[in-house]
Amino acid sequence: MVAILVQITTIFVVPNPVVLRVARFTEISKFLNVVVGLLLGFFLSSSMNRWYTCVNGFLSLLDSIRNLQMQFTALGVPEPQTILALRYGLSSAWLLYGQLLNETKRGDEETKARDQMWQTMREKQAKIDKSGNTMMLEQWEIDALKQTRDPPGMMWMWVAALIGRLAQDGWIPPMPSPTYGRVMNLCQEAFAGIREVRAAISVQSPFPYTHALATLVQINNLLNAVTFGLVSGLAIATSLAYHGVHIPGHPLIAIKKEDEMKDLQSMGVTFMYCSLGPLLYQALLLISMQLAQPFEHEEAWIPMDRLADQLEEDMCNGRDLTEHMAFEKPAFKPQPTKEELKHMKRASMI
pLDDT digit string (tens) for 147-198? Predict the structure, then answer.
């Protein structure tokens, strides 16, 4: 609309279009195009790095849970304690995913989404337990976690405390041993993954920077529209004069065929230059904004729920395959009897 308005104004205002050099007008927007393209490239790169950082942090959390199951299997930790630790680890992943979704909402919607998240965690079954009666989180655990600011991170405080208890009870090597340090490092890596995701999502580019960049893009779009309007207006005015169409108030001038062809050619090139450039810059700006907030836009969505489901399936497969080995299960400490195992299961459910 701006280009058409400027085009019509140019046709009726400029009495002699041949005198004005059409190519000069295209130089108006070239400098700003370079600046905007450079800034958009930096912003897109920053947003993409932030997106990858978020994905890598979540994958680090999931890998820590997998490695924890591997360590517990190699050390022969009893099943109730293993399920408890893995349940806490899976809960932290789901809570992190839920919190990131909740933070995209505002006001009452955020409160409703938070309540829905806790309700889902209360009803979600922990498939890692074969009994089918174990929920992902018990009510008392939810009540305790609701009082914290960072429930996913606090889950790993429980896991770390459980590992210390296992070392104290003799199910894993004692605290001064390298094995204990390795197991505890898994907790630290998981916690670091949560903080990495948090930092990538919570700490965004400063508002003045993004606002200035968006303003430059819009100004560049407007300037390109004005440039194309001027160039096309002059080209059309030249073509009309060449074909003998007289505009009231303008003097009669002689136009050469060469001048008409040059102006029409400049009009076509300017159309490509002033339409594709702003379209590309606008697309890059929107893509960068979406990548910076992957949980607010479906186009840049990170499938954390699918990754967590795959992790739970892998853990169930690992649990079942330990029943089909060509050798006896390893154990750092002799396994408990059936009565002791029942008592441990009851204690882990309290």
Answer: 998 999 999 999 999 999 999 988 899 988 999 999 999 999 999 999 999 8
78-83 long-range contacts, CB within 8 A, separation 24+: 78/171, 78/335, 78/336, 78/341, 78/344, 79/341, 79/345, 80/341, 80/344, 80/345, 80/347, 80/348, 81/162, 81/166, 81/171, 81/344, 81/348, 83/126, 83/128, 83/129, 83/134, 83/348
Q: Three-state DSSP class for 125?
A: strand
Q: Please state the rounded mean pLDDT for residues 269-286.
A: 85
Q: List, in order, residues 6 or more apart from 55 with CB less than 8 Å away.
A: 302
Residue type, 168: Q
The answer to whether 300 touches 291, Cβ cutoff 8 Å, is: yes
- Please report the pLDDT score of residue 342 as a whole number: 65
DSSP state at residue 323: T
CA dist., res. 339 & res. 184, Å (int): 30
Residue type, 124: K
Considering the chain, what is the average pLDDT of its residues?
84
Domain extents in the chain: 2-43+207-292, 54-205+303-349
